[in-house]
Amino acid sequence: MTQDESRLIRDITQCLYSSLEIEKSLHETLLLLKEYLPLDLVHVFVLDTSAQTLRYLAEATVKRGTLIDERIQLSWDHFKEIRD
Predict the structure, then answer these.
(1) 21-30, pLDDT tens digit by residue?
(2) Is 72 within 8 Å of 57 (Cβ atoms)?
(3) In 3-state terms, what secondary structure has residue 32?
(4) Angle separating helix axes 22-33 and 3-16, nearest 10 degrees
(5) Phi, psi angles (nearest 5°) of residue 67
(6) Helix, strand, or coil here: 57?
(7) CA 31: distance to chain centroid?
(8) Alpha helices in 1-84 (DSSP H)
(9) How far apart are CA 57 and CA 44, in angstroms?
(10) pLDDT tens-place string over residues 50-68
(11) Pairwise CA distance, residues 39 & 61, whole Å
(12) Residue 48 gets which letter from DSSP?
């Protein structure tokens, strides 16, 4: 890994952990990533294996971050596909 790649990973990590409000930190991370990738939107999901659900935490656009906090029940087939 090059020094520039290490710096970018560090900067992304700092953005993601910059606030307890995930929508704010996700927005800042999107703005950083947009300098390197053609992004307009990012989402954060967490897989809850015990409940077989996806928790849709937040999304961010170039204008703002939005807290979503929804649970999505997955069929067994979709759960297996994501888990495996």
Answers:
(1) 999 999 999 9
(2) no
(3) helix
(4) 150
(5) -80, 130
(6) strand
(7) 13
(8) 3-16, 22-33, 76-83
(9) 6
(10) 999 999 999 999 999 999 9
(11) 9
(12) E
User: Cβ(58)–Cβ(65) under 8 Å?
Assistant: yes
Beta bridge partners of 48: 53
Q: Looking only at Cα atoms, what is the longest distance across the chain?
A: 43
Distance of alpha carbon 36 from alpha carbon 68, whole angstroms = 26
Six-digit token string for 9: 């990973």
Cα dihedral across residues 69, 73, 77, 83: positive or negative: positive
Closest to 52 (Cα-Cα) out of 18, 24, 20, 76: 76
- Burial of residue 24 (CB within 10 Å: 0-12, 13-18, 19+) is middle
Sheet containing 65-73: order of strands: 41-48, 53-61, 65-73
